[in-house]
Amino acid sequence: MPVTDAVKSELRRIVSDRGFRDEPEDLITHAYDGTPLLEHRPEAIVIPQSTEQVAAIVRLANDADFKIVPRGAGSGLSGGSVPVDNSVVVLLSPRREILEIDEANLTALVEPGVVTGTLADAVAARDLFYPPDPGSISICTLGGNVAEDSGGLRGLKYGVTHNYVMGLEVVTPTGEVLTTGGKAFKNVAGYRLHDVLVGSEGTLGIFTKILLRLLPRPQASQGVVAHFACLEEAATAVAGIIAAKITPAMMEFLDQTTIRCVEDFAKIGLPRDIGALLLMESDGHPAVVAEEAAQMEAICRRAGALHVAQAADPAEGERMKTARRSAFAALARLKPTTILEDATVPRSALPEMVARVEEVARRHGILLGTFGHAGDGNLHPTLCTDERDHEEIHRVETAFAEIFDIAIELGGTITGEHGVGLSKKPFLEKLVGPPGIRMMQDLKQVMDPRAVLNPGKIIEPRPRREGRLPNTQAEAEAMARSMMERP
């Protein structure tokens, strides 16, 4: 049932007139995220100004039986912030204050709407470093990064978002305010609740404050670029670099289709006739950086590189990184619909995965560009199509299903950094098995007994055995205990 006028009036009372929107143009612009082919209009958009307002909205949703879809910048690529039936979008991107940069404890306390690149620049000005750097770093928000456990170009050496979350202030699905973690570097009291919440894609809580770990800024960095005749040779170079016990800060690759598109888009002088490009960067102590860059250059030559060179200066290295970040936008110029995925395999399986992805694209007759994080096995096979061509869309969907099957077969996963959301939900059980799905359903039902927060994302909700919703928190807890006691 739609959200009633009475409920909308109460939402207006909570957030004020300036924090409530339900005009058609607002509903349309919040009906989708960065995921192609997924769209659904919400009933309203609310913009809370405080944690207390978020909690009041969640309590109202429990009482009035409507759904909440948390949203940041809407740049996600798995449908995680696409509204559902009978839902209200809670828009958190306007909450963009950096509350504290604590240089003594190397932490930053931020609101969820802070843009990732804004925090990176702010801490860099103090000679500090926030490593996660998604491709959408200039627009994506930290709340969304935490919800999706986002990665980025530096994931090989520095890990992903969960490696930097030290604490959270969270509104729970029942409208309580939970604070977990803190600045203490050693903190092992009880369950690590923030580790459960990171990557939960808005299904287990709404982040209102985020405490992040910072690092000292690396003293030096050096970029290296290598050209190859084919992707398989580039993958061989990657394996050689890892085998040499080198951990670059960044090791990215682009295939020929992507190289041509990036050059057409950015015009930075990339050769259009090579089969693959490998972009690497070492950072740290200047002497170590110089040694690692020379080693990577030599390994690439042994792997058959057509050309290898070190960046002449930091500006040239930054231009190359900008070219890599533009890969998705460049490929999107080829056809009206661009579908980017992130199948991920162990690094040792990268050469086989690359070859098999290319074979899938040839067999189905679809236009594929592949780029990604070579050092951590995170591929971004990107299919360019036209959603109006239903027969081709069917071939694209079939191809992606095969690609995910191959990733699982090789010991990998269906997503390395984009989340499951709606688009990958059909493939999750193949990865985690029925026991994994049941455990996730149990956790969701215990924490969110009325299925208020982002329902239908990641997993399908378990059917309610009692046939009705609990009326109070105490009743919900009793029902959850009864469910857990059953064989």
Number of DSSP strand runs: 18
Total helices: the number is: 16
- Please give the share of residues in helix: 25-40%
Arrangement of strands in the largest sheet: 15-12-14-13-17-18-16
Overall geometry comes to globular
Separation, N- and C-terminal Cα atoms: 34 Å
Largest sheet features = 7 strands, antiparallel
Low-confidence blocks of residues: 465-469
Instruction: Using the CA coordinates, give the radius of gyration.
Output: 23 Å
Domain count, please report it: 4
**What's the CATH first level of the largest domain?**
Alpha Beta
Mean pLDDT: 92
CATH architectural designation of the largest domain:
3-Layer(aba) Sandwich
CATH topology of the largest domain: Vanillyl-alcohol Oxidase, Chain A, domain 3
Task: Output the structural class.
Answer: alpha+beta
The fraction of residues assigned to DSSP E strands is: 15-25%
Considering the protein shown, what is the CATH homologous superfamily of the largest domain? FAD-linked oxidase, cap domain/gating helix
